[in-house]
Amino acid sequence: MLKIGTIIVVGGGRMGQAMLRGWSKDSALKKTLAVIEPSEENAAIILKECDLKAVPAIPDITILQSLPKPVLLVLAVKPQMLDAVLLEYGKLKPYFDAVISIAAGKDISFYEKYFGAEMPIYRTMPNLPAVVGQAYTYIVENDAAKTLREKTGAEYADVLFKQVGDIFSGHGNEDKINAVTAITGSGPAYLYSFMEAWIKAAEQLGFTRQDAEKMVRQTTQGALQLLQQANQSEVELARQVTSPGGTTEAALKVFAKDDRLNSLMTEALAAAIARAEELK
How far is the C-alpha of 207 from the C-alpha of 200, rounded, in Å? Predict the structure, then answer.
């Protein structure tokens, strides 16, 4: 495994916590983690869930100088906060060996303004299932990171995000990352929202919340597990459930009316992409 000395994670909100939960499961990687999170509430969660003690602000320069190298700076703060955060951390760039961002919207040139084009910079888009080691992470890199990889084989972002799931094979196109954000970054919320609507519909049919949740969750889990094992497409498996003139066909005709389900998903992805563009 590629040697990593220190990983400084700035931000312990939802996505920061997801990454930390995944990374802290590896005992060797856990020893390299340092967390900066000003919120006492978030710090308490990180201590409880990851057994990591967060500090409210970046250590002073004498401590930074003594950190085991290489030092990776992972930015897990909201896009709206990045300018303020990077004004501070950009001044400390000599102490970092690479920068990794999981924030939506901001492109690599934004980070190069603060750290310089000579700093290896990785822009990534993981998702919440990192908590259970099932994330999908899209990674793009700047020229400095590419040169580092070609000269030394160092792929810092690849190593980190393989610890929490699957990564995009190869090094992605930055022009696609906002679309990836809409598809996979936000994707778990789409599934959970669909499941919640399904549960509420079951409640309207007279089932208790508890029973409705159990039915929907087990059906979802079973369907996804079958999809992984069956070596068949989603369309093919749906056909196996759908008998001509049967109940499933009647339900699917509702989804298909005026192409409403496909249109709704297309509109939702477009809205997410538009918001990501606004965050630049």
Answer: 9
